[in-house]
Amino acid sequence: MALLGADVRLTPHRREVFEVLQGSTDHPTATDIFTRVKDRSPSISLATVYNCLEHLSSAGLIKQVHLERGQSRYCANLHEHVHFHCETCGKVTDAHPAAGFDPAKFWNLPAGTKITRTELAIHGTCASCATKG
Amino acid sequence: MALLGADVRLTPHRREVFEVLQGSTDHPTATDIFTRVKDRSPSISLATVYNCLEHLSSAGLIKQVHLERGQSRYCANLHEHVHFHCETCGKVTDAHPAAGFDPAKFWNLPAGTKITRTELAIHGTCASCATKG
DNA sequence: TGAACACTTTAGAATCATTCCAATTCTAAT
DNA sequence: ATTAGAATTGGAATGATTCTAAAGTGTTCA
């Protein structure tokens, strides 16, 4: 399977990791994914999960997300989107653009800079936590 | 010293950590800061540097930045800005807005969501690395 | 078919960043 | 000066991730 120039041989483990991530909307961490994949393939090791995530993300099939100190999270949503992180309950949700929009245009980057990707993280309180508080 | 609602007693160590960070434009990590502060105060410990950074950032005097897996970086630039991260040389530079811009307006967040801060990271190749490559 | 080779997977060890802890020192206000 | 609360320390502990060496799984093609 090829995408964005890089190849990944889609071994059973890699496929499972990918499928588990595609079936998750909560931006799981590597250990979350490990736990979920283990239900189907009890023999898989955490090292393999890391390895699979590494290969899948360098092939562009998934994305790594870094929102806070601690564990990386992963995301199989390849559409243009940003991440909303609730500082109260910790949940991370995707938000999609209201209109086609290139954030890079709004910032003065030095001439000659090449952009490969942008990551926008919005931190705050989600509607549900805001109501309770 | 008070700002944004929180207080910090500005002890000598905290002041030094803050000054070192203010004098740095390279978004140093905690150990980078530890090394630099050690030149002036050889007895300071890494735990104290972490402690100072924690207090300074919860008081709103500095910001933590999470761009990639691994160490957190810190930044004393409180003006509205985004971070450009060169994937080739690893340098992180600030970019300031071309025009007043509220990223939150462009994304469909659920009604009732409260935003406390946004962090935009732009990854790519800096002009200097792009020329060499 | 099967020898050779490359890639994948594994468990556990190692590393690295960060946090915790208990003891000590400092500061500010009685 | 005394005392309480906060700051600082070094080292231990934790947690996430990466490394390593060995074993497994194909795949190629003579």
UniProtKB/TrEMBL annotation, chains A, B:
Binds 1 zinc ion per subunit. Zn(2+) binds at residues 86, 89, 126, 129. Its cofactor is Zn(2+). It holds the Pfam family FUR. One of its GO terms (biological process) is negative regulation of DNA-templated transcription. One of its GO terms (molecular function) is DNA-binding transcription factor activity. It comes from the Bacteria. Keywords: DNA-binding, Metal-binding, Repressor, Transcription, Transcription regulation, Zinc. InterPro entries: FUR, Fur_C, WH-like_DNA-bd_sf, WH_DNA-bd_sf. Belongs to the Fur family. This is Transcriptional repressor. It comes from Brevifollis gellanilyticus. The lineage of its organism: Bacteria, Pseudomonadati, Verrucomicrobiota, Verrucomicrobiia, Verrucomicrobiales. The gene is furR1.
